Amino acid sequence: MVSAGVQYQEAFIVNDRGVQQFVCSWLPADQEPRALVFMCHGYGMECSVFMKDNGERLARAGYAVYGIDYEGHGKSSGKKCYIRSFATLVSDCTTYFLGIQDREEYKGKASFLYGESMGGAVALLVSRKEPTRWNGMVLVAPMCKIAPKMRPPPVVIATLTKLASVIPTWKIVPGGDVYDLAFKLKDKREKIRANKLLYHGRPRVRTALEMYRASCDLESRLDEVTLPFLVLHGAADMVTEPEVSEALYIQALSQDKQFKKYEGLWHGLTAAESDEDVDMVFTDIINWLNERSSPTSSAGASGSSSPICHSDLSALETDTKQPKDGSWSLSESGFRDHQDESQ
């Protein structure tokens, strides 16, 4: 299907476990793609509707964009929003992405990973799994560290670990619908909430534990990140704290890295801010990609010798809204301390 200069395609593939997964793509209709972008969506999200605008914007900018719904997410089969193994989820994405990369028509094309929220963790882990296959990453409010004030007590993790071995699929972890925290503008938030492909229930026990473990693993190895990257974060994000992206920017050994922090913006940078702010964010993303996908770009698939691109760190002291009591629930950066929503 071709619309407004973008060719959209979708299909189903079957992974090595026999699970049917939904995949889709947005391609420039009137030009050869300048590079490939592989999208990793967030927890409970999906590609075809929620990330449609992302795909179309990038395709109109000349990029071939590919996305996959994780097992149990969106149109893919599996128990809704159940992550039995984060490593398996990452392997599914890696296998699909590399298969696209290896197509004859894409030989020699630069390839970039794009991840939002939990998808940022997926992108980082895919890049770790196959470090020589990527020219860079765009990470939007990524889940890659647990902020100290969000870190759950050891007794919580011990309890969760025991429950995961007995009742892994039960939806008993406090939290659930985080749309009011993630998406700022009400009209856009309600449109997102109405998407029947998204997950609106409480996190499952195993899912919560796998996300926590993935966050801890990434946090302990941020200094192993060497791929060029752009990380973007809203200063008023209440789902993944801006200090998470700051830690990645500071600790990563990448020689080409950039951190952009947007005052007043929330978690859903590309979905539920004003049209002007969304345009600003995508302009930053596309400019960054353009600079690293041009024929004269020095970025290589295993890293870059380009000088470090420093962001403006003067705004890193911005405070975000603090929780009011001691209850714990799951967010995409682990467990979040917040006011009891049942009151």
Automatic annotation (TrEMBL):
Compositionally biased residues, Basic and acidic residues: 334-343
Ranges of residues in domain Serine aminopeptidase S33: 31-270
Gene3D superfamilies, per the entry: alpha/beta hydrolase
Region (Disordered), start-end ranges: 293-343
Pfam families: Hydrolase_4
Classification via InterPro entries: AB_hydrolase_1, AB_hydrolase_fold, Hydrolase_4, MAG_DAG_Lipase
Biased composition (Low complexity): 293-307
Name of protein: Serine aminopeptidase S33 domain-containing protein
UniProt source species: Riccia fluitans
